[in-house]
């Protein structure tokens, strides 16, 4: 259980580190490619991070940006 939680935390941190001033928005496909993970896994992770306020949607587009917690 703890191992799974630590892995999820590590993955979330890896996603957050993808964002920068030069790359303020990312799609599921981009996150999947950049982290080398299946698109379905990237999608689930981004949706969970969105629910927790770590990420936010970019308008009505299927893109994400850093959320209000930061």
What does the average pLDDT come to? 93
Strand content: 5-15%
Largest sheet: 3 strands, antiparallel
Query: What is the helix fraction of residues, given as a range?
Result: 40-55%
**What Rg do the Cα atoms give?**
12 Å
Structural category is alpha+beta
**SSE string, helix = H, strand = E?**
HEHHEE
Number of strands: 3
Number of helices: 3
Q: How widely separated are the two ends?
A: 27 Å
Low-confidence stretches: none
Strand arrangement across the biggest beta sheet:
1-3-2
What quaternary form is this?
Answer: single chain
Q: How does the overall form come out from the CA principal axes?
A: globular
Task: Write up this protein.
It is a single chain. The chain is built from 3 helices and 3 strands; from the N terminus they run H-E-H-H-E-E. With about 70 residues, it is an alpha+beta fold. It has a 3-stranded antiparallel beta sheet with strand order 1-3-2. Strand 2 and strand 3 form a beta hairpin. Helix 2 crosses helix 3. The longest helix is centred in the N-terminal third of the chain and has 17 residues.
Which helices and strands, and how do they pair?
Elements: H1 2-18, E1 26-27, H2 28-35, H3 39-51, E2 55-57, E3 63-66
Antiparallel strand pairs: 1-3, 2-3
Helix pairs in contact: 2-3
In short:
The protein is α+β, with helices and mostly antiparallel strands and 70 residues long. The chain is 54% helix and 13% strand.
